[in-house]
Amino acid sequence: MPFPASPPSSGSLVELRNVTFGYGERTVLRGLSLSVPRGKVTAIMGASGGGKTTVLRLIGGQAQAQQGEVLFDGQDVGRMDAAQLYAARRRMGMLFQFGALFTDMSVFENVAFPLREHTDLPEALVRDIVLMKLHAVGLRGARDLMPAQVSGGMARRVALARAIALDPELVMYDEPFAGLDPISLGTAAQLIRQLNDAMGLTTIIVSHDLEVTFGLADHVVILGPGAIAAQGTPDEVRHSTDPLVHQFVHALPTGPVPFHYPGPGVAQDFGPPGGGLA
Amino acid sequence: MSWWRPSDVGFAVRCKLADIGMGARLFVRLLRLLPAAFQRPGLVRDQVHFLGNYSLAIITVSGLFVGFVMALQGYYTLQDFGSTEALGQLVALSLLRELGPVVAALLFAGRAGTSLTAEIGLMRAGEQLSAMEMMAVDPVRRILVPRFWGGVIAMPVLAAVFSAVGVIGGWIVAVGMIGLDNGAFWSQMQGGVKVFGDVGNSVLKSLVFGFTVTFVALLQGYTAKPTPEGVSRATTRTVVMASLAVLGLDFVLTALMFGL
Question: What's the pTM value of the predicted model, to 2 decimals?
């Protein structure tokens, strides 16, 4: 799916340096280093459980690196106090996998929420901004609906309108294409590209959808077990010789990422007691 | 996990201490953010309406039936001593000192407490609290604090309604059904109930129960595992913990208020 690439820009808005992070005894990221260039769409891809969403949580300060630094515009997110972290978050927008809309508020009120919380704008101006954001995602007419009345794809577009309500510099998308029909999927991809270019955003997408993401992203990072397996332009990644990247890009069931979860052998589970398979 | 291994016992104790510490920190934050709550009184007002108004029906109906039963039981007992004219006083004192605050708090825990826990727990499960954090909005300040102070305000009002309706229920049975003298019923009550000693203590008790039940409900919701099972367990814990806390505190408060 072709989307026009954004103009080149210099410097990184987000940088991870030798980041290690784990949940309990399970280490998810081991010494991960990556840069997210300003003004570009960067896609983070990889096998499930590989730490893609964790990277977003680290950038947003919802989790803290056990080792290493997570820099947002040159400042270490892990060392920020609450006020600095909240100031940094006002410059970010995040789209959660299922939208995370406030279910007791209408579509309009959801988008107006960050404006009401962070500004003292008059109601007429709030209304105009909300309708502009909803117009940008094609849902101006759905302003009075409740989240339960909109489809999954629409919910994500509402969440996108909410994420860009305060005109952030960085927008992070966690699986924006999961479970969408082809029309919604194409619309979502086009929106991400258009918003990135029109608003001068920096975008990070975590996704499994190869076709759409490769067509959309300027820079692709494939995460292997805890570290980067490959990165570069979509074409460079597509032609990578790394076995894990090859398996991932060609959707092969076997390779470095095994189909079967580690466990006892087949003979042990299904064979006769004390012997192999009959 | 085996309970006889010292390392496992130590780990369990450490986890429990961490939970208590987290609860204590949350409680202090809820108290410290009182001024923030009243900077936006509309949020607290909405919660007083939600928690109070929606609990009103169960509180009123329960109060009425408790008043009925109090009057019947009291009449049969007082009859043995030939002092049935004191029934009004008995009903009012029982309701104000004990049944009003305690039963209203137990009903509040079952009706509003579970609703609070489920609401907060489902917000966590649906990533709404995370979304709020990513919008640079503190969920404790925006979601928990208005609910906490809404519950604290609503509880004494509900307890007062419970007691008032209970007294009316007692009057219906005593005067309407049994045929006691209307004047004796009210004058005995008026003479025997002290404003500060009885009504004041009743309000104080229900305030303490309001703090307790609402805090337990919010804590359980906020720390619930973000799964259907986690929210369900948190809701159950709210009822069990809040009810036990109310009954335990009632004993302590009664002992302090009435001279042990």
Answer: 0.84
